[in-house]
Amino acid sequence: MVERLSEKAKEQDKDADEIRGEYFQKDDHGKFVVGKDSKLQLLEGKKLEDVNKAFDELTDSEVIIEFTEYGKKLKALYDALVNYEYELSGSDAENYELVLTQLEKNFEGENK
Question: 46 with 92: CB under 8 angstroms?
């Protein structure tokens, strides 16, 4: 499962690099040009608003990961999270809620 998540993260990184390559200057070695303000330098004729829009579209796009081969393990994870008795806080609580919500969508739909 971690492998699948890692693959999706790499895909998104690749897509982000493609966007950067489309909008920002590179030197002769293929490295992005950084200005005195420590920011990447836009290619001539490109607008920052367009870059931001492209990144917004990328980050807003839905990512689908097929986990059918992990069905039993995910069901066990779901059951463990539903029955988790300890209190969580901060990012642990947020991540717990996020994962549990997604698993509930899957497993509660099966029971209907």
Answer: no
pTM of the predicted structure, to 2 decimals: 0.56
Residue 13 to residue 4: CA distance in whole angstroms: 14
Task: Please identify which residue in the block is written with the tokens 């293929």.
Answer: 30
What was the pLDDT predicted at 24? 96
Q: In the prediction, which pLDDT does 1 show?
A: 58
- Supply 82's token pair: 């539903």
31-69: burial string, b at 16+ Cβ within 10 Å, e else: eeeeeeeeebbbeeeeeeeebeebeeeeeeeeeeeeeee
Domain boundaries, the chain: 2-60, 68-110
